[in-house]
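Could you please review the protein record set out just below?
***
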Amino acid sequence: MRATQPYLGNRLRTLRMEKGLSQKALAGDMVTPSYISLLEAGERMPTLDVILHLARALETTPADLLGEDYRDVFAPHPSAPASGPSAVAGQLYARSLVDLGDYAGAREVLERELSQAKGRSAGDEVLELSLELSRVLAAAGDHPARLELLDEMLAALSGAVPAVRISVAIDRASTLRELGRFGQARDAAEELLSEEFLAEAAAPHERVRLLGVLVSVLCEIGELEDVERLTQELRADAAATGQHAIVGRAHWLTGMALVRLGRQQEAVEELKQAGSLLQFGSMSMLDWLRFCRSTASILLAAGDPESALAWLTTAEAAAGVTDLTSERMALLRVRAEYELAAGNPSRAAELYAQVTEGPEMLSGLPLITALRGQADALRGAGEVQAAIEVLRRAAQLYEESDSFRQASAVWREIDELRA
């Protein structure tokens, strides 16, 4: 089965009719009803932005819409050389696959192009491709592979201009956080804050990224003393960029920090400001998905499950256009949080078990968060001994990540349950 025009036309018509949509409704503001008619007749092949619009409207994936060989639609022309003097064609192809939600395909392309660039000793291309691959690995949740790549990049960038080296170093601190290596992430972030380059007027966006990493790490390990001051610096540096997207992310990060400080209503206000600046269409599909998921989680912590459900449902719909197991599992964790908040601890415990056990389970920071939630669900369902076992696992993970304050809090919780 190939992603041909007749196949796409038939598939498009079938899905539209199953959803009960008219051609006008499917067209929306993106195209005209007559264009939808031409697509269904097999007389047109849509551009990437139209494919993404159609997939979202039909609540399916681009791959399902185009067919099994959908990658061929965006691959470089077969008459072109597999690898020319640069890797531009491969990079563009990989970006198209990312837009389609095919991160595995993008990774395959970039790893091939990177290997060829290294063989040509093309230093600038190696750097560009490595940065592109790093972003794909982060999106795909393969943090061990990303850390290995970033370490390799930093070794090669020892004498490079500060802007590039520090940007990669911030990515590394973020990756350590995602791996649950909180002590190392905190130390790396605090060391970077002393870099002279980050004090320059040209680097507020990088300082915002770094402060975001440090704030989130401090919240996770329970070292909250400096969090409020750092979030104030974060918002001030974001405002200095003059970019709505960066300011919105600063409000988003502040909201997450305020939840950890127990100031839920203030967190909700920060989210409202973030939502006014971070609109769908101004962000990538993956960033929008994560913002919706995070918003749902914060609203649940603030005691507003009804509002949280709307954001969670939106995130689940957005997840339909990606092939990321990590995002699917992260959303399942938030769905478990919702079930617990809605008074269904047994169902929540079942959902938590799906993300804390098995080959596709969460890892690093998301796993620890899920284990804490799973223990709450088990306790609510009357399974106290099972809750203790889950908490013991969480405490051990905290200790392994040098988060001794959080580990002590969990051990105390275990003692209370035993009593």
